[in-house]
Design brief:
Helix content: over 70%
Structural class: mainly alpha
Largest sheet: 2 strands, antiparallel
CATH architecture: Orthogonal Bundle
Radius of gyration: 19 Å
Distance between the termini: 37 Å
Number of strands: 2
Order of helices and strands: HEEHHHHHH
Length: 196
Amino acid sequence: MILSPGSVARVGLLVIVAVLLDISGVSGVRLLGGYADLLPLLVGAAALYGGSLAGAATGFFAGLLADLLLGQTLGTSSLVLTVVGYWVGSYRELRDSGHGLLPLVVGSAASLAYVVGIAAVSFMLEVGGASVSLLVLRDMVVTVFLNTLISLPVFVAIRRVLRPVLEVDPLERRRRRRAATIERGPIGLRGLEIGR
């Protein structure tokens, strides 16, 4: 991601909108005993498209804003979301991030890391009388499942907002690579103009 005032404004606006939507609407709707959570999806998308630094910064500020608005123990969400953002961004920097279904995998992995991380930090700090039961595990599984279902449209929306400030658009790189493969053809048939 290009570090500029425009990119900071875009990510900041995404953080504010996602936290407000998460607090006011999405987290209040319970399906199958769990709820969808937009924050790990936002952090995962920012990290996937912007890298580890953008993901960690987005995770920190999204978690801090959520903790401040909800009146929770400061730092629990921001700690976990910072780690999730850095982890997803590091994955993006080491691997090819141009596959079309990668948002599903990243969304589910970021959501799983977030719910497990929040549970671990809450258990260690005894925030809100944290306890371990089968209901908590069921809620975690349902939350990861719901986040996986909504991850593709959320990632597409975030990519559209961030696209003007991205250094390299992962999907554009994939399209160029596919076009180059079609031009060259298979190794044994290069220059024969077969398959066009």
